[in-house]
Amino acid sequence: MKYINHKLIALLLTAGVLSTACDSYLEEENKSAKTIDIALSDPKTFDQLVASVYERARETTTHYAPDMYYSFEDLGTDIVTRGTTISGVSDINDYVDLNPLNGVAYQYWKNQYLIISAANIAIDNADLITGVAPAVKTAGIGEVKFFRAMSYFNLVENYGGVPLVLSQVKTSTTDYTRATEEAVYTQILKDLDDALAGANETPSAYGRVTKDAVRHFMSKVLLTKGYKSFGVPADFTTAASLAETVISHHALVSTFASLTSISNQRNSEVFFSYLFGSSAVSRGWGNSRHQLYKFPYYDYPGMIRGNLYQKGLEPLPTPFFYSLFDDNDQRADATFRREILADKTYTATVNGAPVTVNAGGRAIYFPKVAWTPAEIAAVPYKVINPDKYFVVDGITNAHAPMFKKFDEPGVAFKQPNELSDGTRDMVMMRSGEAYLIAAEAYLKSSNPTTAAARLTTLRARAGLTTPVTAGQVTIDFILDERARELIGEVNRWMDLKRTGKLIERVLLYNPHAKMNNALKPKHLLRPIPQYEIDNTYGSITQNPEY
């Protein structure tokens, strides 16, 4: 009997015919194969095709590939650098010898097109599947177009113009060419218009794309487009208007600590998250954010490889990042810990005498203001001053206040090449960022007074009650605020590129990139993977100077 085309069947199988990751929405169902007649006569086929897009987007966000995480989000920016001594070179963080053979550049490109492929399959087969309720079909197509737009936005901002593939690929072809950056933006906004029309205002199940998720993403796309040579002033005003709609629908949580609490993941402020859940079958790789920005703390006296802090990924925040927080800024305590407590009793030496520190006592401390050598010598625990974050201390090569924003106590200690197994929701969109998008859009629309008002409201939630004045509002002010509010949640590299601040701020505040001084204008685009150029026999062309 004739089977449904191999791309569709492969999608249904390799997607795990997705599971309970979005609660009642993504129900697990195992099938070995489907005949074309059965597949097209079963309305659940459409649900599975939509679910596969969600899964691909989720899985390639929590990790690019085993032992490859978040490199194109925040590494090589002003607030995140590599977790090593300030020596040597790095292609992504330091921009030294970043070239078309770079593995991350290839994997990131590949992952975005996998999402696009899944979206195209769902869109092209929607009308062929019988029995799908019109409202279900409309919403599903809107949702997958949202994801297709997101992937093209990731591609165009990282690589410039890219091939626009808008239909299911059924035959082998190599004649792909790069569309212009403007053409890609036109398609992104067309998809988002369709998504806004199709997505539900209120989701049928938590975790599904809503109109507010579309509005939020559209506001960011238009904000970015407004800076381009093909942008228009209305891009900024429309971005502000969309952000205001989102703000009006999603009240800020009262405190930042409450926002980041694992017991309050689904709250008024959050309107789109990737869901993982407690089932090992459904959660795939698992949310890996609990591993962000942590050093090998377990090598210090009194510490173990436990399930409280977990294994970290290599990058660390820069000293500049830690310097951004005023004493009264409550986001600092909710984002990172300066004190690490001992897992077990240990013995240290103070003034030549042994001192016993019980489990639960202080093991490592990072003072905000440097301690004197005498003060350090007088305590049994390890004290690491701000100027020593990237200096070998005889135990680790680099060390900084421990990130806690996404902590998930109880998750097993895992190596980066193992399943992360995090079960927390991965928050992708919340109104806290909408305030910052609105502020930036108002500033670019020559309305700093309203920009200041939005910033004042957001900062007040963090305990900073002094109003922001119109004269204070600059792009740098907003970028600093985005760092404090959104580290680990949004793409910092894109923020810096959008605002024209990537080169300036990286060379000022990223210690490794500053040392090598290799960042140039060509690095505002990543290299096109050589694999793609070779496979198309050169019809896909390389970015300048690579």
Automatic annotation (TrEMBL):
What Gene3D superfamilies does the entry give?
1.25.40.390
- All copies of the RagB/SusD domain together span 322-546
What are the entry keywords?
A: Cell outer membrane, Membrane, Signal
- Quick one: signal sequence residues? 1-21
Lineage top rank: taxon = Bacteria
What InterPro entries has UniProt attached to this entry? SusD-like_N (IPR033985), SusD_RagB_dom (IPR012944), TPR-like_helical_dom_sf (IPR011990)
Instruction: Extract one GO cellular component term from the record.
Output: cell outer membrane
Q: Where in the cell is it found?
A: Cell outer membrane
Where is this protein primarily located?
Answer: membrane
Under the heading PROSITE patterns, the entry gives: PROKAR_LIPOPROTEIN
Keyword Transferase recorded: no
List, for all copies, the residue spans of the domain called SusD-like N-terminal: 25-223
The family classification in the record reads: Belongs to the SusD family.
Protein name per the record: RagB/SusD family nutrient uptake outer membrane protein
Organism expressing this protein natively: Flavobacterium alvei
